[in-house]
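Problem 3 from the worked examples.
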Amino acid sequence: MLRNIFLVSLLVYAVCAAHWEIREVDSAEDQYEEISADGMPKQQIFNKCDICKKIMKAVKKKLPPNATPDEIKEKLKNVCDKFKPVSGQCKKLVQKYLRNIIDELMTEDGPNTICTKIHVCKSKPPIKEFILVHDQAHDNF
């Protein structure tokens, strides 16, 4: 019985973690596209993590299934031109982590996971979230 509760808790945690990653990337994208009341883009300061997630999301959308390293490299060359306010930072980031980015984009990982794996974003400790989910699941039984 306890084993089943643990497995259910683990499954719930995995689903929550995936949902959180999608929501976080979408909110970063919304922040990037904010417009002030007069119609002019707001000045935003983006850290490397935000830029990395934006790059990964844009490139993943344009990649065919089973993309080759050369196809990925070509998409990465052009992606930074679309992010005018941060295109210089984008190009530096892509150049610095190119090999790792290509390797990670060949996986099924999401933008947040990729940027964490290449050490551009900090990982968040999952244990606190797991305990919370486990306690909630345990209370429901």
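Problem 4, a separate protein:
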Amino acid sequence: MDGFQRHFDSQIISYGKQMIVNLVNQKGSEKPLEQTFAKMVNSMANGMVRYVAFDFHKECSRMRWDRLQILMDQLAEQQDEFSYFLVDSDGKIVTQQEGTFRSNCMDCLDRTNVIQSLLARRSLQAQLQRLGVLHVGQRIEEQADFEKIYKNAWADNANACAKQYAGTGALKTDYTRTGKRTQWGLIMDGWNSLIRYYKNNFSDGFRQDAIDLFLGNYSVDEVEHASPLHVKKDWKFLALPIIMVVAFSMCIICLLMAGETWTETLAYVLFWGSASFGTFAIILYNGKDFVDAPKLVQKEKMD
């Protein structure tokens, strides 16, 4: 709790009032995170920090992305209170921004980017109306050319951040880029999620090592001969996946090319299916040997 308190104290000093917008699921594995976050904010009892929880996936399920307006309406008064920074032509400060929105989801990439883009557009609209670029009542959405540039800029920003952190472009960028959720967007989100799962488990360790080395978290020892990055893999690292793929392929072939009798086909399917399932179970049991874990900082901790 002390670290939590000190973190928000520093945020308040730097940026003013804090509006926390928690977008995680309020059920399943993400629920304890939402509950703990809310509990810590309440325990802090700081009037400069407010907390709003919005179950993004539940509210926007079944393509009901128009329900994001519920959250925007909930935040509108606070955003107007925060205002924005504005100086006149003489350099005199006209208005100052007095707070920030601190939105989060699990990785603070996909859901967060959607909400931040909506908040940014609302703030920009208020500024353009104040400067007379837009008349009162005019909306940015009605300016087709600018709206296209704005949405693409935020979608590109989301992709750049996501590729750096998760290894793929951001999810939900079809909404950020077009203002609509599409079936193709859902398919691409599924594909990117699969790629993220693979990279997170089988290639991110080396990338974390690169970051640790760049940041100085790992100090190279001059007398250290063999590089800690070169780790000899056990035989099962290659053998088990090959066996599993072959067994699964044979199971599919047996299903497609049935034998003379159904009992013969069933016997082959059960044999190869059991082989693939058993091999997969062994891989799961020895999961740490297959995952690409960071080696540099992990090695220092072990030493």
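Solution to problem 4. The longest strand covers residues 17-22. Strands lie at 17-22, 49-53, 86-87, 93-95, 99-104.
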